[in-house]
Amino acid sequence: MKRIIALIIIILSAWGIYEIATASRGREDKQPLLADTAETTSAEEPSAHETETPKEEDTPKGDASHPGRIVISKQSMTLTLFDVDERVICRFPIACGRNLGNKSRVGDMKTPEGDFTVQQIQPASTWTHDFGDGKGQIKGCYGNWFIRLKTPPHTGIGIHGTHDPSSIGTRATEGCIRLHNADLDSLKPMVRVGMPVRIETSDADRKQDGEPSAEQGANNGESRQPTADADTDTDADAVWYTVVSGDTASAIAARNGTTLKRLKKLNPSVANIDRLSLGQRIRVK
């Protein structure tokens, strides 16, 4: 009997040792797989630096406490407010004159182009207007403010809100510049009487007025030979400039150490040097 008990103990002991050894080998076999998985995951996942996207606050912004001027583009259908250092403070979508071209007479439904100033800022929340569509006087069609512009020889042109938000981004007005009411309310505190306002033309407006587009004007200017004028340099000395938003002929001339008269002489193919388009190339020297 004692021998049987001893034999059972020996068998149980041997079985326990076998179980321990087997478990140990299982752990060793699995460890490389876990390590490989960790390495693969690490290699496939981009680092935090690689996935980081630029934050909006990282983008340089203009100084709203020092607004400089307004630029309205009929090409991009936007109004941009720059600070005194020419940095963008804000930019809003607009609606402008329903008819193409530069304003030439009363009632032509066109937005004037050129360099103007703010003449007056008037509360307009109670104003009404009859758009001639059979709906009679419309309340709230100007938003809270009418920023009247001095646009000689034309009068009655301004920046205002709208009763029809869906019109923003289209040619829909009688000549004024419309904004969403909330955008107008944001803009108004930064506007002052006398502030410069530039209204830029577009390729479509230039075409309507029988002028070449910005691209055509640039190409014509580049291919055209200089006139036989003692005051005109040779093509080898030519320096070209590409018009950006907010540019005026006078500002470009001053920036490049020349005069407006000289700029006109250097660009004989440009019908009206005061109506430049975004992306247009002109000769400055």
How is this structure best summarized?
By secondary structure, the chain is of the alpha+beta class.
What would you say this structure looks like, in words?
The chain has 285 residues and is α+β, with helices and mostly antiparallel strands. The protein has three domains: 2-51; 67-202, L,D-transpeptidase catalytic domain-like (Beta Barrel), CATH 2.40.440; 214-283, Membrane-bound Lytic Murein Transglycosylase D, Chain A. The chain has helices at residues 2-44, 48-51, 181-187, 203-208, 214-223, 249-255, 260-266; strands spanning 67-73, 78-83, 88-93, 96-97, 114-123, 128-130, 137-139, 145-150, 158-160, 171-173, 177-178, 196-200, 240-242, 281-283. The strands form four sheets. The protein has an eight-stranded mixed β-sheet, with helices on one face. Strands 4-10 form a two-stranded parallel ribbon. Strands 6-7 form a two-stranded antiparallel ribbon. A hairpin with a 4-residue loop joins strand 1 and strand 2. The N and C termini lie far apart (120 Å). Residues 27-60 and 221-233 have low confidence and may be disordered.
